[in-house]
């Protein structure tokens, strides 16, 4: 619902070109020229357009972008539709930038408590039986709540969804002969952070994959080209990108990313190895900075759970007093962003709209107060999935309702 | 499985840049600079990579491209994985190029045999209850067979798949009050061809949509930005792009695209209004120009049917003597590309591999001979879906087996 108005003047002048040139991408730049004046017309039926190209491009009237910092970038959830995230808008969270990896030199070593340590090239990985699955990824630090003027992208844009293709990790584990005593494995990335995480072997026997493709094409550099670990439903950082080594062991490796980071207080204890991302939902329309009119409004959003399928999404249009079930877009997939929609007639009075997700385990997305009750006042910044509320003002303006807890 | 080798020299020199600059896209150009020398290293763990960007980009080692003529471009099926076609690789078939349409000026008129003729803006369309569905599109002229050195892209790359989002056409038809006598509607595009097709109203009551989003984002210009008709399973040209007018009537309109084109001989008669695309499949690996080695090979491909779900794909590895069922990737969706896989141990002898699809109506993809028997020797160029065979030579080279019929 990108309603940014672009005049002919803007399109034909330098502004649009300049704006597009600002969209810097990894390794280089993408430059899209403005529309040639000869093509811009009040009657497109009178002007023959350009022929097909070798690759397509967005309309010059559309430019969804990620909000990027030095270490992360956020998917523009409020600009998207359905359940697939375009690969170039997938969120990023890196610990030492995006490495350049030559796929012809890529190698994955699997060793440790295995009968036969092996090195796999990318071509080797592609020769094994392949599987595709659609699931979300989410950074465990995916929550902001400091002001009214936050967009869905700013609140929780560290989640995206792709159709991934690759080889089941079990296939490789059988190949190397993982020993019965092995209960953990280390996953190590080939970036300059040499990102490492310990993963229980049970996840491999469940649904872990090594993936080399995303949304139909080779995985993008920002997502781990040429191959990454995929642990469906588990916190993003465990899905190690640019994967170069798996080491089997009978205990976790206690790496920096599971001792000094990615742990959080739960009352008077510290929770470590908190893998599954709990059920969550967010309304992406209407949301800040959109403005709505009185009458029928389709409330739209996405819901997801790292524990399985979304069973129900409820919507409240009266600040949480009552809740009604939203429509879920079929097919509802396991550990996947699920689009929900709820048709609502707004009477023009100030109100708050909220959504809450319940997954197939029966777990329901908590309020911030329920989170506080469960985890204590000092919750840290990880695994926060509270119900999100939007305030709709009488003038139709939509604002985020910040949650204050510290 | 793009195995094109790129040396460091190529990447750093002018060649890579020049190659990428050749990838002309609609309206403008995409330019991707070569990898800065500082990032290219034999040990990526020693070099901090660039930070996240506002939009991502493909790896410089990957460049799938469409094969484009003046009027069409073909999806590189042999370079893809899974079931989603990246939006910028979606096939194109235009009758007067790609028009530039300002979404703020876009209007869709629905008139004719309706109680209340109405004009809908893009914002109007987006206010209605929305639906997402994943399905394929396919040009009715999607077949080539003239030589051994054809890739899947060249044989049948005029098919692609997206997740589409928009409004059900029934929603709009109820809004305007389509009269009971109306049995056809005209769909008219806003391009310089003013592309028109007549569509039976029954398709609207079944599953037709007006879509404004594709694979999570606004629909691409080449696919009808800002809105197109989507008739799941029906021949591509009826899914009118840049849709600007629907006119209800009690008879078809006999437009140029259904009289002089998009009709074909069936024995001594001409078939008109042949909407559904019949079940089809193609093996995309191994395929020309790939080369394989003796041993285990996962045969991979896609199958689809405009009549419903794919029920079965069978693979033959002995030139059609015997057939075995392939694995289908779940979930199998209605009128959707369905990935199939079949694990095969190649003994190194020359052979032919084939696939054939059966849909839920019980229809099985025919051989070229069966097509000839059903339609006569002068079959024309539309709705050809024969079983495709690849010859695997002793040296592992894979060639297409052309079908001669005229």
Blueprint (SSEs and pairs):
The structure is a homodimer of 406-residue chains.
Chain A: H1 8-12, H2 14-21, E1 67-68, E2 72-74, E3 92-93, E4 107-112, E5 118-121, H3 122-127, E6 131-138, H4 152-156, E7 159-168, H5 169-176, E8 184-189, E9 196-200, H6 201-206, E10 209-214, E11 217-218, E12 228-230, E13 243-249, H7 256-259, E14 264-266, E15 269-271, E16 280-285, E17 295-304, E18 310-316, E19 324-325, E20 327-328, E21 338-346, E22 351-359, H8 368-375, E23 389-392, E24 398-400
Protein architecture, described:
The structure is a homodimer of 406-residue chains. Helices cover 12% and strands 30% of the residues of chain A. The first copy, chain A, has 406 residues and is an alpha+beta fold. Chain A has helices at 8-12, 14-21, 122-127, 152-156, 169-176, 201-206, 256-259, 368-375, and strands at 67-68, 72-74, 92-93, 107-112, 118-121, 131-138, 159-168, 184-189, 196-200, 209-214, 217-218, 228-230, 243-249, 264-266, 269-271, 280-285, 295-304, 310-316, 324-325, 327-328, 338-346, 351-359, 389-392, 398-400. The longest helix of chain A is centred in the N-terminal third of the chain and has 8 residues, at 14-21. Chain A has three domains: 1-41, no CATH class; 107-271, Oxidoreductase, molybdopterin-binding domain (Sulfite Oxidase, Chain A, domain 2), CATH 3.90.420; 280-400, Immunoglobulin-like. In chain A, a hairpin with a 3-residue loop joins β1 (67-68) and β2. The model of chain A is unreliable at 1-23 (pLDDT under 50). Chains A, B: Its cofactor is Mo-molybdopterin. Chains A, B: Its EC number is 1.8.2.1.
């Amino acid at each position: 619902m990108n309603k940014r108005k672009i005049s002919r003047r803007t399109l034909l002048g330098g502004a649009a070109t300049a704006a597009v040139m600002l969209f810097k991408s990894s390794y280089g730049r993408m430059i899209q020229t403005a529309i040639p004046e000869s093509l811009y017309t009040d009657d497109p039926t009178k002007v023959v357009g350009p022929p097909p190209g070798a690759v397509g491009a967005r309309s010059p009237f559309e430019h969804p972008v990620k909000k990027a910092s030095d270490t992360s970038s956020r998917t523009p959830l409020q600009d998207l539709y359905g359940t697939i995230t375009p690969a170039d808008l997938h969120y990023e969270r890196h610990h030492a930038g995006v490495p350049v990896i030559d796929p012809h030199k890529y190698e994955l070593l699997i060793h440790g408590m295995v009968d036969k340590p092996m090195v796999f090239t990318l071509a080797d990985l592609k020769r094994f039986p392949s599987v595709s699955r659609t699931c979300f990824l989410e950074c465990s630090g995916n929550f902001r709540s400091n002001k009214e003027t936050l967009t869905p992208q700013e609140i929780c844009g560290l989640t995206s969804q792709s159709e991934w293709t690759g080889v089941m990790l079990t296939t490789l584990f059988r190949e190397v002969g993982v020993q019965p005593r092995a209960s953990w494995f280390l996953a190590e990335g080939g970036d300059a952070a040499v990102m490492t995480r310990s993963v229980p072997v049970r996840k491999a026997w469940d649904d872990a994959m090594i993936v080399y493709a995303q949304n139909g094409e080779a995985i993008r550099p920002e997502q781990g080209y040429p191959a990454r670990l995929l642990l469906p439903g588990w916190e993003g950082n465990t899905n190690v990108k640019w994967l170069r080594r798996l080491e089997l062991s009978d205990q976790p490796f206690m790496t920096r990313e599971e001792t000094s980071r990615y742990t959080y207080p739960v009352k008077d204890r510290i929770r470590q190895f908190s893998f599954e991302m709990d059920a969550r939902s967010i309304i992406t329309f209407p949301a800040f900075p959109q403005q709505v009119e009185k009458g029928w409004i389709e409330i739209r959003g996405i819901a997801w759970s790292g524990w399985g399928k979304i069973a129900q999404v409820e919507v409240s249009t009266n600040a949480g007093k009552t809740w009604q079930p939203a429509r879920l877009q079929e097919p509802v997939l396991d550990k996947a962003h699920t689009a929900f929609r709820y048709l609502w007639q707004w009477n023009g009075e100030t109100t708050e709209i909220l959504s809450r997700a319940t997954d197939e385990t029966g777990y329901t997305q908590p309020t911030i107060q329920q989170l506080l009750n469960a985890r204590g006042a000092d919750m840290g910044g990880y695994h926060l999935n509270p119900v999100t509320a939007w305030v709709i003002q009488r003038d139709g303006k939509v604002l985020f309702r910040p949650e204050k807890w510290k």
